[in-house]
Every structure is written in structure tokens, then in C-alpha cells.
Amino acid sequence: FVCNLVVYEVFGTDSCWNVQHIIPTPLFRFTCLSTLLQSNWLSLSDTMYHAARQTLDTKDLKVSKVTANGQAAKFTLGPKHSFMGTPLEITLPFDLSRGQHVIVEVTYETAPNASALQWLTPEQTAGKKHPYLFSQCQATHCRSMVPCQDTPAMKHTYYAQVSVPKELVAVMSAVRDGEEPDPQDSSRAIYRFRQPVPMPSYLIAIVVGALESREIGPRSRVWSEKEFVDKAAYEFSETETMLKTAEGLAGPYVWGQYDILVLPPSFPYGGMENPCLTYATPTLLAGDRSLSNVIAHEISHSWTGNLVTNKTWEHFWLNEGHTVYLERMIGRSMESEQFRQFKAMGGWKELQESVNTFGANNPLTNLVPNLNEVDLDEAFSSVPYEKGFALLYHLEELMGGPEVFMGFVKSYIQLFSYSSITTEEWKHYLFTYFKNKVDILNKVDWNAWMHTPGMPPVKPQYDSTMADACIALCKRWVKTKEGDLGNFSEWDVKTLSTHQLIEFLSLLLQQEPLPLSHVKRMQEVYQLNSFNNAEIRFRWLRLCVKSKWEDAVPMALKMATEQGRMKFTRPLFKEVYNFDKYHEEAVRVFVAHRAAMHPVTANLVAKDLKVDNDKST
Prior knowledge:
Blueprint: E1 2-3, E2 6-12, E3 17-24, E4 28-29, E5 37-44, E6 50-58, E7 62-68, E8 71-72, E9 74-77, E10 86-96, E11 102-109, E12 117-120, E13 132-135, E14 156-165, E15 169-172, E16 175-181, E17 188-199, E18 206-209, E19 211-217, E20 220-225, H1 226-235, H2 239-250, E21 259-262, E22 271-272, E23 277-280, H3 293-300, E24 308-310, H4 316-334, H5 337-358, H6 376-379, H7 383-399, H8 402-416, E25 419-421, H9 423-433, H10 438-441, H11 446-451, H12 468-479, H13 491-494, H14 498-509, H15 516-526, H16 534-546, H17 552-562, H18 566-578, H19 583-593, H20 599-608, H21 613-616
Parallel strand pairs: 2-5, 3-14, 4-14, 20-21, 21-23, 24-25
Antiparallel strand pairs: 1-4, 2-3, 5-11, 6-10, 7-8, 7-11, 9-10, 12-13, 13-18, 14-17, 15-18, 16-17, 19-20, 22-23
């Protein structure tokens, strides 16, 4: 995979230059499966005469040359940080004056193990015939792919041309801008992309593979390998309805195209909100559209996260809390208020599990944590999502209900669009917008919500209508003695929706492990082993392993390795690891599958299982 040139257009402030536009040109070339060779151009201007210097973030990049307007520029690579990488210091060979336009070209090569990139062999794909590449830059991995100002505080547009073998297709987090035969090689094709809306570096994305697409709406296509494309088209057929619903709530969709790409199973997240090209895990392909709320979440990011962005990762809740709030408002519009309340109850349980995992006194459970010298991958949890949502829901109740508070959210988006902000800026605008209710806002315990670890200071009282049947069935299983297990039957779950069955299993996971006799009986009457819905299967297998059912161990390890979504893979490995008899088996299976895992997933599972990195690679 070779890129000849990447152009950055950078415009200055009084003391520095800032990246405004990135142009990978003339070509990314997908030619091998280990390195990315690139030259980056930066276009600069400044506001005062001086010998301009700039620091770019890099990670494991081999920089060979830097020029400015064709002249050699001095550059140095600073000391390497364990997870933040290496600063690239560039000094222009001439003074820079206000308004001056400068092209800076950086020639470099990525490392084979660049943390932003996963290279898949044909055997790791669904089609088994062609290699596959995908990037995942959030939170700070773009620097391993492109020298950049790798912070959400900086936004830029970009343009790209990608050359690939004709049997492969390239897509990016940008609007497709045409394709044509490669004039330098008749066996290749060139794909062009442009992203005219400013966005932070963590949203740059590129995918190359044997992709096909299907139209699922007037501005949407679904992409995947042909083995999944029709199933994905069915699963995500409600995308346009979700987009229109979101526009009604938050304002116009400014990104043009909204496509969804179903990635290979190793993708570590449920979805990723790359502009114009949402990533989705194949674990969403349940066959009944029951898991499409993830798409509602990623659509919501088009406003909260991509358009209004957290200035630093300490304020990540601004992205995720508002996005969960908007996602559930979409659910409210498309389903019902009871459905929104039901999903909020499930979110509260996810938050409780994260707090239990990290520890109630762990500062990483603060809504606004201190992330100095913290690896952001290790800090990732549901806290910014669900603690953030809980705060917004609490404020909704205080300010007058969902319609009133959604008015604030829409106004907040309009005011801060195309910018990156902090919690203090958000809070200041909250007090400005609700200027007639400042006395109520002043009674909120802001320190407890923002800067105190553990669960929120206020637990919302959600409507439990949809959860009541789940709660009642959970209580029956917990209280029933072994001799009375015959009272359960398949009809217990016949009237439960997919969401309610997931909730039932989630409730059981919060209890002490069930006796082995109980989970065996549950399998007899509910046939849960036959469910392919990933959310159901994940919870069921965890429940079985917690109850020390040995038959479930190989199934749990199979699920942990046949897909790589961290939400599933990490807890499944940990459950088996904590089953004393299978402690070593968990480590053995992980080591055997590590090379096929995404680097972020592999690194975190290794820490979970206390596997020494050097001995296991």
C-alpha cells in the first residue's frame, strides 16, 4: 500500500500553523500488505514574520524527507512515548509572513504494525480470495497512518485519490468523486474522494477490499463483501427514515452522502461514525433489524461529535452523551416514549457494569476524567455514553421535558457546529439558553456529576413498563428452587421482544451466578444456544460460564475469536479466564488467535489476561 503524496493546507494563528486541508495526491497505492509509504504536503500561512516551526504527531513512522515549497526543510523526531508516539518538529527554511501560502511535503513510511491499520489476508475475509485493509483512527491512532495534528481540537477538509487493483474497491470517509482506469497501470483503478466539511483527524478512514454495494436510500448505500451485502441491505433498510427523523430533531444533514460499510468480523467496535461512511460490525446483522439502534447512534454522531466535537478527550462525554440522547430521541420518534425509557434503563445497567469493572473510586469513571498519561484505549468504557446520557436526561426532567430540552440540544448544535468545545463552554451555553431557570440549574451538584467517580448522584426514575416482564421472569429464575424448575416453559419468552430478551439476560448477569441446574434447564426450555443474535448469545454464554457450565466454554471462546468486537470479546475472555479450570485455556486460545485480531483488541485482551506482550507475539 503506497501513497506518493499527501498535501496539507495549513493556515496560521499568531504563533503557529494549523492544518486546514489534507490532500493525499497523486495516489494512494494498494500494492502490498505491510507498509504505507507516503509524502505529505502541508499548505501554510502565518500572521507574522518569523522562522516558522510546527510539531506534528507521528507514531512508528519512518520520515525520510521534508520540503517546503520544494526547498529542503529541517526536521527532527523527538523522544518516543509508549502510546502517544513521536513528535515531528519541522522548521521552514525561510521566514513566513501573514497570508503566505506554503506547501510542506513530508515523505515517510508507516510501520507494518501501524495501530490505525489492520491488514487482513484473504483467509481472514469472507470471500477468502482477496486481501483487505481498514483503518480505525479514534482516538489517537491517525498519527500512525498520517503525520498530523492528531487532536479533536483541530479540524480540516481533505481530498484523496486511491489506486487499487481493479478487482478491489476503495472507500473513504468522504464523498465519492469519481473513478477511472489508472493511466500508469491498466490492471488498476483510481478512486477519488473529497471531504469539504472540516473534521478532526480521528475521522479519517480508508477501506480497500472486494467490496460491493446496494442502494438503501436516496443518499445511502451499504457496502460490504458480497457474502454480507444483501443481508446488510435488509438490516439497514430504515436508514433514510432514521436520517429524516434525526434532521427533524437536530437540523439539516450537512455531509451529503450517508453510507454504511459492514467490516470484517475483527472490527473492534459496534460502529464508527466516520463522515459519509459509517463503519458497522457484522454482529449487527441479526436478521430482524433489532440491533439497528447502533446505526441510529452513528447517524446521531453526524451532529454531535462530527459537527460539534469535544475539544480534548477529557470532554468525550460531549460527543457520546449527546449522541446517546439523540439516538434515543430517534427511537422515541420511531417507536415510543416507553421504548426510549426501556433503552435508558438498559444503559443504566451498562454504566453500572463499567463502574463495577473499573471500581467505584476509579477517576476514569468521572464524567470529565483527567487523562494525563492515560492510554485512551484503556480508558474506553460506557461511562461517557451512559453517565453523559443520565445527566442530560436529568436536566431534561428539570427543564421541562423532552421537547423543551431537545430545543436546547438543537440550538447547541447550531451554535457550535464546525467547532470543538469543552464542558465549560457547553455548561455556559446551557445556563444562557435556560436563563429563566438558572436557580434550578444552580441546585444541580455539578461537581458530583462531572468530577466525582462512581455512579451519578441522581438515579433517574425511568418508566419500567417494557421492563416489567423481564424483571418478573428474572426474579422467578433467581428464587426458584431446583425441584421447581419444571414450572418453566418455552412460553415464558414467546411474548418477549428481542430487546426484552436481551434485558432479561442482562438482569440475570447482575445477580449472583445461577446454579448449574438452572442454566441447563434454561437451555432446555428456551433453546438459547440456537440464537444467533450477538447481543443475546453474548449474554447467554457469559451467564453459562459464570455458572461453571463447562459445555459453554468452547462456545464462549469461539464467539470471542470468530468476531473481534471488544464489547463481546473482552468480557467473554475474562469470564473463561476467571473460571479457574479454564484459566490456561483462555490464554492458550487468545495467543493462538492474537495475530488475526485488531491490534487494539489484542493489546487490551492481553492486559485483561495478564499475557506478557513479548512472550505472546
